[in-house]
Write a structure and sequence with these properties.
Largest sheet: 9 strands, antiparallel
Low-confidence stretches: none
CATH superfamily of the largest domain: ATP-grasp fold, B domain
Number of domains: 3
CATH topology of the largest domain: D-amino Acid Aminotransferase, Chain A, domain 1
Number of strands: 19
Shape: globular
Bound molecules: adenosine-5'-diphosphate, magnesium ion
Structural class: alpha+beta
Distance between the termini: 57 Å
Strand content: 25-35%
Radius of gyration: 21 Å
Helix content: 25-40%
CATH class of the largest domain: Alpha Beta
């Protein structure tokens, strides 16, 4: 194995300049790497820190080529990228990880589900639905979940239809229909896989939703599940990433249904919101771990050092424009609180502006502190809507 490097160790290209990219830039600098970021906007959260930016769209073959040719390894922090130019560049010998063929498969929720089925990975029953129509929905049976094959994220592109009366709300786009799972919990597991197939798995995270608004409220680690289920979730997460033959870090989302059965919902071929807690709570965080995997360096320890709660810091409804961070001192005064702000120039209602990790040896106490943080810390904006 090569064990002496010029400095900077490598130049890494990141497609996407959002918060995941920004946190990856920090990890890259820690490892002595330089970074170039491709994003449609100058001064993106990741671009600000990288210092080297290429401004261009994620499907612009010219800008993508410029990035990939100027870097030794290219990766991405988003999924909505034109994969054809990437595949062409890989064929010409450039290193882009995870493999753009895999990204193309994951971009299509139908193909992703079909791959799960072929590999024997349990997931909600589904059928393809190229041309949505009332009769086909009725035949599949309600309640159901309709998912757009492409382009959805953060719940956009997903319609939960309880009964035929909801058909009016269906998505008019090529889709799949899925059984609506009666979920006890939603769980997530980060898995890293190296080029030689070695895998490591992080602890199981539990996502807690606010029942009133149905938005993600807190992420808890370790998840409050029994040891057998915990083992099963981690094994299934690794089986899933192996079935995809992925290299790099992957976020595997699960449903735990009311019968105690685990079903894989979907996989993200990148760092994931549910892995942010690893920055403070694990020996090696998800960003460094991803870089180690794609650079061919030894994987780091995924050991959990402390229970943790993670909160997303969303733009307060009713505000836009230049952000105002309210309650910063009060939140920081709570022991165990770490605040990450993403450097976004403008806030919007529910925009991800930052996140907060709370460590405490006692998970219930961490949750109580998290509730305190939620009460005091708010991102408002200079303009009122
Ligand atoms: N089959 C299902 N049964 C019940 N709830 C579902 C189902 N599929 C999705 N959901 C709900 O919708 C959310 C978003 O769906 P997901 O497929 O993860 O799309 P996205 O790509 O937007 O994250 C899930 O986190 C879950 O709360
Ligand atoms: Mg999801």
């Amino acid at each position: 194995m090569q064990d002496s490097f010029p400095y900077p160790v490598k130049r890494i290209g990141i497609i996407g300049g959002g918060q995941l990219g920004r946190l990856m830039v920090m990890a890259a600098h820690k490892l002595g790497c330089a970074v170039t970021v491709l994003d449609p906007h100058r001064n993106s959260p990741a671009g600000q820190l990288a210092g080297h930016e290429i401004v261009g769209n994620f499907d612009d073959p010219v800008r993508i080529r410029e990035l990939v040719e100027s870097c030794e390894v290219t990766t991405y922090d988003i999924e909505s990228i034109g994969t054809e130019p990437l595949i062409e560049l890989v064929e010409q010998g450039h290193v882009i990880l995870p493999d753009p063929h895999l990204l193309a498969l994951i971009q299509d929720k139908l193909q992703q589900k079909q791959r799960f089925a072929e590999a024997g990975i349990p997931s909600a029953d589904f059928i393809p639905m190229e041309q949505p129509g009332a009769e086909a929905f009725r035949q599949f049976g309600y309640p159901l979940v309709q998912k757009a094959r492409r382009g959805g994220y953060d719940g956009r592109g997903v319609a939960v239809l309880e009964s035929e009366a909801d058909f009016d709300r269906h998505l008019k786009t090529p889709s799949l229909l899925e059984r609506r799972i009666d979920t006890d919990k939603e769980l997530a597991v980060m898995v890293v896989r190296a080029t030689d197939g070695e895998m490591r798995c992080y602890p199981v995270v539990e996502m807690v939703f606010d029942p009133a608004q149905n938005i993600l409220d807190q992420l808890l680690v370790p998840a409050r599940i029994d040891a057998a289920l915990d083992r099963q979730a981690r094994q299934l997460a690794m089986d899933t990433v192996k079935a995809l033959d992925g290299v790099g870090i992957f976020g595997v989302e699960f449903f735990l249904d009311r019968n105690g059965q685990l079903l894989v919902n979907e996989v993200a071929p990148r760092t994931h919101n549910s892995g942010h807690y690893t920055i403070e709570a694990c020996v090696t965080d998800q960003f460094e771990q991803h870089l180690r995997a794609i650079l061919g360096l030894p994987l780091g320890s995924t050991e959990l050092l402390s229970p943790a709660v993670m909160l997303n810091l969303l733009g307060e409804p009713g505000f836009s424009g230049r952000p105002r961070v309210c309650g910063l001192s009060q939140a920081l005064a709570i022991p165990g609180v770490s605040i990450h702000l993403y450097g976004k120039a403008e806030t919007r209602p529910y925009r991800k502006m930052g996140h907060v990790t709370i460590l405490d040896a006692d998970l219930d106490r961490a949750r109580e502190k998290a509730r305190q943080v939620s009460r005091v810390l708010r991102i408002e904006g200079e303009e009122q809507l």
